[in-house]
Amino acid sequence: MPPPVPGAELCEPVRTVDAAERFKMRVERERPGHAVVIGASYLGLEMAEALVRQGVETTLVERGDQVMRSLDPEMAGHVQDAAEGVGVRVLLSTAVEEIRHRDGRPCSVVTSEGELPAAHVVLSTGVRPEARLAEEAGLRLGETGALAVDDHQRCLGADGAFAAGDCVESRHRLLDRPVNIQLGTHANKQGRIAGTNATGGYIAFPGVIGTAASQICRYEVARTGLTERDAREAGFDTAAATVKDRTRAGYYPGSGPIWVKLVAERGSERLLGGQIVGVEGAAKRIDVLAAVVWSGMAVDELELLDLSYAPPFSGVYDPLLAAARQTRKALDETRS
Amino acid sequence: MPPPVPGAELCEPVRTVDAAERFKMRVERERPGHAVVIGASYLGLEMAEALVRQGVETTLVERGDQVMRSLDPEMAGHVQDAAEGVGVRVLLSTAVEEIRHRDGRPCSVVTSEGELPAAHVVLSTGVRPEARLAEEAGLRLGETGALAVDDHQRCLGADGAFAAGDCVESRHRLLDRPVNIQLGTHANKQGRIAGTNATGGYIAFPGVIGTAASQICRYEVARTGLTERDAREAGFDTAAATVKDRTRAGYYPGSGPIWVKLVAERGSERLLGGQIVGVEGAAKRIDVLAAVVWSGMAVDELELLDLSYAPPFSGVYDPLLAAARQTRKALDETRS
Predict the structure, then answer these.
(1) Among all residues of chain B, which has the CA nearest to that of A210?
(2) CATH (residue range B212-333)
């Protein structure tokens, strides 16, 4: 959705592969030049990185006080460091006031911190479910603005209608309420389930826990479950810990830094979420945490989980196990 | 342990870093030359690869009919392919009859398939727990020949004695019986638990499921839980499926093959084990399966697990999810 800023409606959306190819060719033709990316989500960061690597001077403008709101601030800080490391200029707490055009093309972006030259403007300010057609047909929308469906992907408010993907709500297993998380992983699973159920089968969609990964500059960036901030806002009594570790055994060549943050619930001591930023192995490690969060495993059990070890892949204690041990200590601390 | 073969007792064991350095220097000084590695476990394969990469003509001799008995035969076949691909000669179903020496150095290995020249001989024919001292002190050994301990690492048969590591038995969570799996991951955890309990603390070791990973030639090779063969031998009614997939999204550069085999139990439909061979991401993916096996998750739940997705790390359906779907079909097949 374009942000409610004068000039935003004139920016060409990049929603298809063709549009992306056109955009890329224009950047290549006119480089070096200046670009402004609005919104520091993972997509904004990926676009800013791509532009900088094309030799374009790129500023990433973010209204909030951190990049990647899907991470806690200190983990997002590592991602910002990496983006700045490849040459992206990051402006936080900066509001966009106008996108100026000349001869039908962007020329600058006016922000609360001044005017930035911009031959290219990328809007990455979030998504909204496109549910108009369904709404007009009488289907019910949920609180998120997406279509309300039951766990068999049946639309509420109409017999025989099924829906799946970016336009529907999914139940968040930890928050126990509907969320609208627009990811291909959910869309694919739900589409298959909707199709199966619509044709006489019977499969339930078990919900989501917010697992996601991306490659941003030198880091794999990944998260699952709840961040510390999200967990607290949802009323969980939390303990959290972060470790900085190495991705391989200390003596093994090619090792690099990895940060793992875990968030646990006091009382139940189950893992509520994890965030990982590292030069390798973050995306697949987050899937381990996803299985742990999904199954309701407690921190003590994670700490003693039988994970693999070989020098090219981790130290004897995988960073996940080291993080579990620190989280154990964090759980203990306020007990005494 | 040296195999019961004439001449084996003359081979120098490579048990320490110093011994390995001496061995490496001798190989470098005398290359190209010939080497014979006896025993095609992961260590034997790693040694054979290292020797071939030093320019030494290397034959890997294995008594059994496959390399890596910790995998099912068809998965082990990919590993053998990779070893042969870098130039290792693999002889299966081949018995070693004598290791001949001249002037105090190996000169050949006599096998059931003929005599092989060998300036270097590496024995990798398995390990036995070294529990003599403990046995003489009156501590009880288990059926595996390792020290019997309870789940707090207390030795059976003696008050106040604790033991941990390669010399002890651990409970296998799926087989529900003691096993002796000599891995640093278990030794480290058990050592900490023994120390904690010996000094007034109270932690239980929750057992093992046989997770392991190694880098062999171009492949990461990893396994957890039970192989199909092991599960059947233990009396489980099993269904299994294997998928060949790609490690990244199809259009993303740097993608390569990955095979995932899953073994499930009929009835409970829980996952009993997994094996992965692939050019990347096998080691961390096995840890996802380890968490799934550990927590007793069923195949249907794995298939819909909220795993991460981004093009550099997998297709939208991770190979694990694709394998779960095939295993679901395998479970269905003999029902009808």
Answers:
(1) B306
(2) 3.50.50.60
